[in-house]
Structures are given as structure tokens and as C-alpha cells.
Amino acid sequence: MSGWLETYRGTVYRWEVDHNDHLTVAYYFARIADAGLGALEAIGLGADYAAHERRACVTVDCYARYSRELRVGDILHIESGVVGVEPAALVLGHKLFNSETGEVCTTVEQQVGHVELVGRAAVPLTAAQRRAAEARRVPWDGPARERRPRPRGLEGFLDSARDTVKPWELDVLGPRLPARSTSRFLDVRVPAGSRRPARAGRPRPRPLGAAPRRDLLDAPPPRDDQRAER
Question: What does the pLDDT read at residue 178?
Fold first, then answer.
């Protein structure tokens, strides 16, 4: 795709799939977060810029559409570009592909606001920054956004989870990764008081950042008698 920048390439691991054998939403967003950082780095608004200027582009809005599933062992890559330039923000477009088939699996519009790292006040992009962003502009043919009314209040919502932000959930720019927020929704999709029946032999996806468990690997751990024989 001419004009697009490849910002991620990888594979789907066993512990990243859900009970349907599909890559979980949180791990989609983990890849998109890496792709977004790659795109910002190409514009000159990456980690070095944040460290020296104490300003950064942080995610303020995402619109994702899923069209194809990814399963264990699938190879994927992401191509990114700028699809919108605003006075104090950019809109990045990402397309996630199944590298074997060439099919688009996911499209994401990621709006990032240019802010001070301390206080989060919006900062207009300079003329040079806008020119750098325009140099990465690409045509966007992703699905049109669905416009839905915002809830007027919290009536009808259930308090379904409570947690804290962990140090490892922050990205290199400081703000919390979208993937970490998304992972909180994985266990609250089931209505309160109900239990989803688990499929026999299907491991639960591990939390983002957790070490792989032995029971999620293809080879089972050796028994005590096997260890003794060795």
C-alpha cells in the first residue's frame, strides 16, 4: 500500500485467544498501541520528543471495526498513516492485516491529542509538526463511524469491576495504554450473577503483562517421575 508505513508485525500466541479461539480485543489494542507509537515516531512526536519537550500525543478517542478473526499462529501486520491533522491533535489510521491472506482484519481510527505531560493541557501543533504529519497523510477508506447517543447518566449501569492502575500498564509516553483499559472489560461482559460455561480444556487468556503459564504451552510440564528419570 503506497504511502502507508508498516508499524507492526507479529504473530498470535496461544495465551492471547479467548474461549472461541479468537485473538482477544485487548491484544488487538496492544498491537494498535505499538503501531501508534511507531507512526508518531516517524512524524517526530515519539518517545524522544516526549522526553526532551515534556509534551506528547496521547490517545483521546479510538474507533475500531473488526471484519476478520485471527487465531493462534496467524501472522499479522499493521500499516499506519495520518488521516487527519487538527490544530492540537492528529488522527491516525491503522489497518491490521492477516499477512498470509492479505485480508484486512481490523481498522482503527486513533485520535491523539498533543498535550503537556504535566497537567495535560492541550498544546497547538507547530507549523513544522503539521507539515511532518501532512507528509504522512494517506487516503482513508475505513468504515464510516456509527453515531450513537451518549448515555445521559449512570442509571442502569452495574458496578462490575474495581481495580487500580499498575506501573507496567503505562506506555513509554506515560499515559495508560488503551489495551490495559480494554483488558478490564474481558471479565465484565457476562451479566452480574451469571456464569458462562467454560469449554473443556480451553485455557483462559492470561492478563496482559503476566508471565506465560506452563499449562498454556503446547508441551505439558514433566511429571515428578519423569524428572527423576532424567
Answer: 59
**Residue with the three cell numbers 498491537:** 31
CA angle 7, 22, 138 (to 5 degrees): 30
pTM of the entire structure?
Answer: 0.75
The pLDDT tens digits of the residues spanning 122-164 come to 999 999 999 999 999 999 999 888 888 888 888 888 887 777 7
Q: Report whether 112 contacts 122 (CB < 8 A).
A: no
Q: Which helix (H) or strand (E) holds 42?
A: helix 25-43
**Helices (H) and strands (E) in the chain — how many of each?**
5, 5
104 is a domain residue: yes
Max CA pair span of the chain: 70
Domain assignment present for residue 196? The answer is: no
Give the domain extent around 174. Answer: 5-140+150-189+203-229
Cell numbers 449512570 correspond to what residue?
154
The answer to whether position 145 is within a domain reads: no
DSSP per position, 110-178 = EEEEEEETTT--B-PPPHHHHHHHHTTB----PPPPPP-PPPSSSTT----------GGGB-TTSSBPH
Indicate which CATH number applies to the domain containing 78. 3.10.129.10
Question: Amino acid letter at 2?
Answer: S
Q: Is residue 197 part of a domain?
A: no
How many domains does one find in the chain? 1
> In Å, how far from its chain's centre is CA 200?
29
